From TrEMBL:
Protein name per the record: NDP-sugar synthase
Record family assignment: Belongs to the transferase hexapeptide repeat family.
PANTHER family attached to this UniProt entry: SUGAR-1-PHOSPHATE GUANYL TRANSFERASE
Listed InterPro entries: GMPPB_C, Mannose-1P_guanyltransferase, NTP_transferase_dom, Nucleotide-diphossugar_trans
Source organism, top-level taxon: Bacteria
Residue ranges annotated for the Mannose-1-phosphate guanyltransferase C-terminal domain, each copy included: 253-332
Pfam family, one: GMPPB_C
Domain Nucleotidyl transferase: 4-237
Length: 359
């Protein structure tokens, strides 16, 4: 049996206000909680049992996913009372695993969208007889990530977490947030205290002579930590640029969920999602955006690359471009919010009060 640990305990502070009342993995992308896409892809790769390592708003997950049977999986929930970092979360999930020594356990982060061949990663791990296998990807600017150089055979040589000096940038290969651990290696992670796999576990294993194997993969990869990335991920899922069995519809330029209403003359494109019970008025244009359940986009509004929270209202002729509108916020007519502007949940902006706002 193939098992996985899915790390879903983060607070998602960079996505606020959308994560004030919703954990980041439960924020909808392409019509369903983002976590649903990860679980569906894991199931398609042959994973049967997933341990969800939760912490922030942990009570939200189980009412939605239950025991996992509706998704073809067995789900177990493990909750940290105090955040213990990536390594601490993995170690805390260990007792819920059925894997035996020598078995591979898939571990992945709850905020990464990827087209990675998961079965292929597991095969590469077995073939290399590695203690840990890491999914690596290449990026143009690696400064915000953990660098992982490898030798020609794929053996990991070092770890540099978020390099600060030019001489530290020795590769464009970065840690892509998906791993395969030998079951017994997880037990070497200290229990009951914060541990970072990136800064402590992996460098420690390397220093002790363990075999860490890197698999460089060129498929789609996106870190969903920031609103612009989350919106892009949702749009790419809708358009089929990256495929997920959990998308509730065929690939296309927009996805309108049951119960939503789009007035004649409104235009949707760029992978836009209109949530259940939401309304888009006549003459409105919504491009590459996420409009959550019950939101209203009034007549003549223009919304691009933005997230509009559940129950929020965007007034007539208002322009959103790269904005995040919290749940139940009310944006009056003839406003203009651009370039990272954020409106908190429940806030109200009068008509024509803002012509431009940036974070």
């Amino acid at each position: 049996m193939t098992e996985a640990v899915l790390l879903v305990g983060g607070k998602g502070t960079r996505l606020r206000p959308l994560t004030l009342h919703t954990p980041k993995p439960m924020v909808p992308a392409a019509g369903v909680p983002f976590l649903a896409h990860q679980l569906a892809r894991a199931r398609a790769a042959g994973v049967e049992h997933v341990v969800l390592a939760t912490s922030y708003l942990a009570e939200v997950f189980e009412p939605y996913f239950g025991d996992g049977s509706a998704h073809g999986l067995r789900l177990t929930y493990v909750t940290e009372r105090e955040p213990l970092g990536t390594g601490g979360a993995i170690r805390g999930a260990a007792d819920a695993l059925d894997a035996r020594p020598g078995d591979g356990v898939l571990v992945f982060n709850g905020d990464i969208l990827t087209g990675l061949d998961i079965r292929g990663l597991l095969r590469r791990h077995e073939r290399a007889r590695a203690d840990v296998t890491l999914h690596l990807t290449r990026v143009t600017d690696p400064r915000a990530f953990g660098l992982v150089p490898t030798d020609p055979a794929g053996r990991v040589l070092a770890f540099t977490e978020k390099p600060r000096r030019p001489e530290e940038i020795v590769t464009d290969q970065i840690n892509a947030g998906c791993y395969v651990f030998r079951r017994e290696v997880i037990d070497t992670i200290p229990a009951g205290r914060p541990v970072s796999v990136e800064r402590e576990t992996f460098p420690g294993l390397l220093a002790a002579g363990a075999l860490l194997h890197g698999v460089v993969d060129a498929s789609y990869w996106l870190d969903l930590g920031r609103p612009a990335s989350f919106v892009q991920a949702s749009a790419d899922l809708v358009r089929g640029i990256v495929r997920s069995p959990a998308v509730p519809g065929e690939p296309g330029e927009h996805l309108v969920l049951p119960g939503a209403h789009v007035e004649p003359g409104a235009r949707l494109g760029g992978g836009t999602v209109v949530g259940a019970g939401a309304r888009v008025g006549a003459g409105a244009e919504v491009e590459g955006s996420v409009v959550l359940d019950g939101a209203r986009i009034e007549e003549g509004a223009r919304v691009r690359a933005s997230m509009v929270g559940a129950g929020a209202r965007v007034g007539p002729r208002t322009v959103l471009d790269g904005a995040v509108i919290g749940d139940r916020a009310d944006i009056g007519a003839d406003n203009e919010l651009r370039d990272g502007a954020r409106v908190w949940c429940g806030s109200a902006i009068p008509d024509a009060a803002i012509r431009f706002s940036a974070a």
